[in-house]
Every structure is written in C-alpha cells, then in structure tokens.
Write a structure and sequence with these properties.
It catalyses: Hydrolysis of terminal non-reducing N-acetyl-D-hexosamine residues in N-acetyl-beta-D-hexosaminides. The chain is an alpha/beta fold. The chain has 19 helices and 26 strands. It has four domains: about 30 residues; about 120 residues, Chitobiase, domain 2, CATH 3.30.379.10; about 375 residues, TIM Barrel; about 80 residues, Immunoglobulin-like (Sandwich). The protein has an eight-stranded parallel β-barrel, surrounded by six helices. A hairpin with a 4-residue loop joins β20 and β21. The longest helix has 28 residues. It is globular and about 75 Å long. It binds acetamide and zinc ion. Zinc ion (ZN) binds next to α11.
C-alpha cells in the first residue's frame, strides 16, 4: 500500500513535471515565427507598446527603413509610431532601439533581437539585418490588430542558412500586373526571402520593353485568346486572328518595381530565355529563326514548334547584344538569367547557318552548338559586368564555364550533383520539391494543373544540400528557389493560391538550419500566417487540410480497403459511409476501412473544437484498378 501511495505521489510529481515541460514548450511554440530563427530564448514579462513608443534608428536608416516600419505597423496593427534617429535618453519611456554595430559575431544578414519589458534592442551589422529583425518583430505582434500590442520577452539570434532565397514567377504564359508583382515581393520580403527571379520571356509572350526593338512588345507581348481550352490542347494562332491576351512592362514600370524591391532587400533577377522558349521573339523578328523567310505567331499554349533562335547567324548575336545591353542597364542585379532550357534543336540540324558554325568551330553535335551559343551569351553578359545564370541543360555539350546553374531536372540528369561536382555555383530549383506549379492536394479536389502533387509538407521537407557532395562542393550551393510556371494559373487569385502557403514553407527551407526545422510546429503555426496573409488580401490555399483517399479492391472478397491519409498532425479524420457530409460526431478513422463495391466514403479533417478544416474528400471503390 505504502509503496503504492509513494508510487502515486511519484506519478503525480512526474505529471506535474511533464505538465510544466509541456507548458514551457507550449509557450515556446506559441512564437509563430516563419522562417524559424537560429536561436530563440524566451524570458518573462512583456513589452507594451503605447502611443508614446518611439522607434530609434541609425540616421542612415531613418528615411527608408523608418518609413517602411511606419507603413507596416499602421497596416498591420493600426499603430502610428514615431521614428527618430539616434538612441533613447536615460529615463525615457520604453523604446525600440535599432543599432548598427560592428559586432563580428553577427553575420551579414543576421541580427540579435532582445525584447524586455523595459526596451526592445535590435543589433545588426547591416541594413539587411535590421530589416529582418523588424520582420521578426512584426510576427511577434498579435494577429488581431492592436495599437497597444504586447510582445513577449525573448532573445532571438538569427541569420540565414543560404544567401539565395528565391521565388520565380513566370509572367509569360499568363501576364501579371506590376501591382501584383510588387504585392508578392512585399510578402516574400516579410518571410526573409531576398531574390525575385522574373521569368520575363517565353513562347507565349515577351514582357519587357526593349527600346531598340519595339516589335518585341508591339507583337511579342500579345497572343490569340484560347481561354477555356485546356493548355496542352490548344491549337496555334493564325496571322489574321486578333491578339488580345497579354501585356508587358515598360522600362519605367520595371524601375518602379526594382525600387520597391530595393526597399525590401529583394534583388530582381531578369530572365531572358534563349535560345529555346523563344516563339514570341521569333514572331516579332522572324530573321532570328533558322527558317529564313518564314513568319510566326506568338504561341497560345499547346506545342510551340520552331521556337529556337538560330545559333548560326551573326545577326542573332548582334540582336542579343542590344537586348542584353538594355537589360543590363535596366536591372541593377549582378545577374542576368539567360534561360538555356529545353531547346528544341531540330531546326539547327537542318540549318545551313548552324551547320556552318558547327563546322567552323569543330563542334561535335548540337549540344556543343548550344554550349557555343551560351558561351557567346556569357561574353555579352560579362561585357556588361554581370554574371550569367542558366538552367541546368547548359551543362551538356561543353558546359557553360562562368555560369551559375539553376538545377531543376530530376531523373537520370542529377544536375544537383553534377553542377557542384563540376565546380559550378548552384541554386537548387528542384522539380521535385520546389516546382509549385504542381498541384498541392488530391488532384481531383484542386484546380487544373500538372498531374503531379507537391504538398506543403513535401516543400517543407526539402534538404537542399545532397549528402553525396563533399564539403567543398556543398559550399557551391548558394541556396534555393521556388518556381511558379504559369500555364495553369490564368488569374491573380489562382497564382496566389499556388504561391501560399508553399512559398513560406520554402522560406524556412532557405533560411532555417535543419536542427531548427520542425514540420509539426510549422503546420501548427501556419493558420496564424493564413490570417496574416489574408489581412494583406492574399489568397491562400488550405489544401493541407484535404484528406488523401486511396483504395485497393479485392476481387476475391469483392470489397475495397480504403486508406485515408493527411499531411497534418494533431487533427482527426472523421468519415461517413452513408453519403452524408461528415460532422464532428462522425466516426474517426484509425486504420483502413473495408467497404463494398460502389460504396461512397466521405471524409474530412476536424480540429479539437470540432471544426471542419478543409474540403470533404469523397471516393467510391471501383474495379478499375485491377
Ligand atoms: C524549366 O522548367 N524548363 C526550367
Ligand atoms: Zn540556324
């Protein structure tokens, strides 16, 4: 007995301890920070914002960062804050103090943010560090706007894992306005991403004004309307058809977006995709094609044959010299992305100009001709004091010395190994983990898209540095990027739906060290970020709450085994077998269900309060998988 009581006390004591640990952990995880910082130490007490709270900034930061802080706190919290240069006087009311220091322990883009009841101190070596500290501070503020916000005491030391934290948007397949682009740059900057890769040209539209070549936007930015016809089923346009779909950015528009991005530490990398993906280009200037005296129309979707530039004519290189010159003058980035992907070389094989160049330079095949073309682009780019980026196809032939490689392909190509192993600085743009044009939930429940599923948890799970690389090779991995190709995203809302929340999961892949990544925490705090994003009028997808259903049919038993899966943790999968929508009182799924042929299973994901979180999954067992 006595022993038993002692044991009970022990158990109670143990439970109290567990509860305390749990509470401490609950407080820890209540910091809904994305991307999660390098180190977080919670303290006690809170900093209270009042109408008198002043933000002190280094003088050099007062104009840009000061105005930005005022704009964001007004928008987020309806808080009107004062910004001053210098630092608070002794005995002054609690203030927020941003300092630029020479503290070598802080990395270039890093910061230390110390929140105490008496003050908030931010230390960084650069303006970027101060900017990122402010983003963390924003996320520590309440989701429900409050001009008198309370911030928990905390000490955060933080810096990014990778220098390249990118988002690519394809504005060729479907044009997006400059306002839309600015809106996305504003969001990614808040998640500490720093590169916006602007895929400005492709078969279906040329989107940037080039003053020397007005046809590029007079003709190349416009295509025939095939709205309502599935992308890959579209047939090419005739010369007579009206060309009503498209748009482009003037050079003034581009400058406006660049300045907007500069204030948010986002570098804009323009992509001019050649020699393939150039149907809009050869439609505007047919002499750039191998097919002398042919004419072309901007592609509308579907196949885009004859879309390569001629790699043999000197006039192609003269033309590109002018284009690259204007692009280099317009974009302050040190990089120009020249594409180089998926070039259809059929016409090169028949073209006398291409074949003559091949012969003259002793090139073994068309892959080497591609290398010749890319190396000439590299010369034009470096002549403008820029560095070339290209997709990984340029590794074939004789390679592309001097290029930074975007490694995207899967399968036997393994460019994510080949590029760093051959000494190329490499950015991971993985088809498998970061092509967010793929659908993000059960395909039947998602808008039309490529029939590949890339759920939020898979984006989050990416480890960008392959184990097979040596430490020296691994150092060539500059970072990562999510890519949104826009064949299937005709509207702004649909584009945002594809971007969020997967882009913010990727922000954590790019910023946060593996030891601090935690899918369970991420999926718990993501609803807070849905609220924040929705407050900024961003369309988000809640597909992470969709249940994946599958089954195996047994011809002997004539029944099906139904399996339900979710990428989330901590929620209940509830289902019905009578065709009605599941409710909080429905049966809970624990293992597979055995159901008869044709029987409908409906399932939904519910939280602890009994709220349905996503859409309802419905499936019937059929014989068709025999
Ligand atoms: C690519 O997906 N063609 C780079
Ligand atoms: Zn040619």
């Amino acid at each position: 007995m006595i022993k038993g009581i002692g044991m009970n006390k022990f158990i109670i004591g143990f439970l109290v301890l567990i509860t305390q640990i749990f509470v401490a952990n609950a407080q820890e995880s209540s910091l809904a920070l994305i991307p999660y910082p390098w180190s977080v130490e919670q303290g006690t007490g809170e900093f209270l914002f009042t109408e008198e709270t002043i933000f002190y900034l280094p003088q050099s930061q007062e104009r840009d960062l000061g105005a930005y802080i005022q704009e964001k706190l007004l928008a987020d919290q309806n808080m009107k804050v004062q910004v001053k240069s210098g630092s608070p006087k002794k005995g002054e009311a609690p203030a927020v103090n941003f300092l630029l220091t020479k503290n070598k322990e802080i990395e270039e883009e890093g910061y230390i943010l110390s929140v105490q009841p008496s003050s908030i101190q931010v230390e960084a070596r650069t303006a970027k560090g101060l900017f990122y500290a402010f983003q963390t501070l924003r996320q520590l503020m309440p989701v429900q706007p409050s001009a008198l916000a309370r911030i928990p005491s905390v000490e955060i030391k933080d810096h990014p894992r990778f220098e390249w934290r990118g988002l690519m948007i394809d504005v060729s397949r479907h044009f997006r306005s400059k306002e839309f682009v600015k809106k996305q740059i504003d969001i990614i900057a808040a998640y500490k991403m720093n590169k916006f890769h602007w895929h400005l040209t492709d078969d279906q539209g040329w989107r940037v004004e080039i003053r020397k070549y007005p046809n590029l936007t007079d003709k190349g930015a416009w295509r025939a309307d095939r709205t309502g016809v599935s992308w890959w089923k579209r047939t090419g346009a005739t010369a007579e058809e009206p060309k009503s779909v498209g748009g482009f950015y003037t050079q003034e528009d581009i400058k406006e977006v660049i300045e907007f991005a500069r204030l948010r530490n986002v570098e804009i990398i323009p992509e001019i995709d050649v020699p393939g993906h150039s149907k809009a280009l050869v439609s505007s200037y047919p002499f750039l094609s191998c097919l002398d005296s042919a004419t072309f129309e901007v592609a509308v979707g579907g196949k885009a044959p004859d879309n390569a530039l001629c790699a043999g004519k000197e006039s192609t290189y003269d033309f590109m010299e002018e284009v690259i010159g204007e692009i280099a003058g317009l974009f302050p980035s040190q990089y120009i992305h020249i594409g180089g992907d998926e070039c259809n070389k059929t016409n090169w094989k028949k073209c006398p100009h291409c074949q003559a160049v091949k012969e003259e330079h002793g090139l073994a095949d068309e892959e080497e001709l591609q290398s010749y073309f890319i190396q000439r682009m590299n010369k034009l780019i470096t002549a403008n004091d820029k560095k070339m980026i290209a997709w990984d196809e340029v590794l074939s032939g004789n390679g592309a010395k001097g290029a930074v490689i975007m490694a995207w392909r899967r399968g036997a190509h393994s460019p994510q190994l080949q590029a760093p192993q051959e000494g190329y600085p490499t950015i991971m743009t993985s088809y498998t983990y970061s092509y967010i044009s793929q659908v993000q939930g059960p395909p039947g429940m998602e808008p039309e898209g490529p029939k590949v599923v890339l759920p939020l948890s898979k984006v989050y799970s990416q480890e960008p540095v392959p184990e097979a690389l040596s430490p020296e090779q691994a150092r060539l991995i500059k970072g990562t990027e999510v890519c949104l190709w826009s064949e299937f995203t005709p509207t702004a809302e649909h584009t945002e739906y594809m971007l969020y929340p997967r882009t913010i999961a990727h922000a954590e892949v790019a910023w946060t060290v593996p030891a601090q990544k935690d899918w369970q925490r991420f999926q718990e705090i993501v609803p807070t970020h849905f609220q924040r994003l929705e407050q900024q009028k961003i369309t988000v997808s809640n597909s992470l709450y969709s249940i994946y259903g599958s089954y195996a049919y047994s011809p002997l038993e004539q029944t099906g085994r139904v399996f339900l899966e979710t990428e989330t943790e901590g929620y209940r999968m509830l289902y019905t077998l009578d065709g009605t929508a599941p409710t909080s009182g429905s049966e809970q799924y624990h293992g597979f269900l055995t159901v008869s042929l044709g029987q409908e299973v409906k399932a939904g994901l519910f939280d602890k309060e009994g709220q349905l979180l996503g859409e309802i999954t419905s499936l019937k067992v059929r014989k068709d998988n025999l």
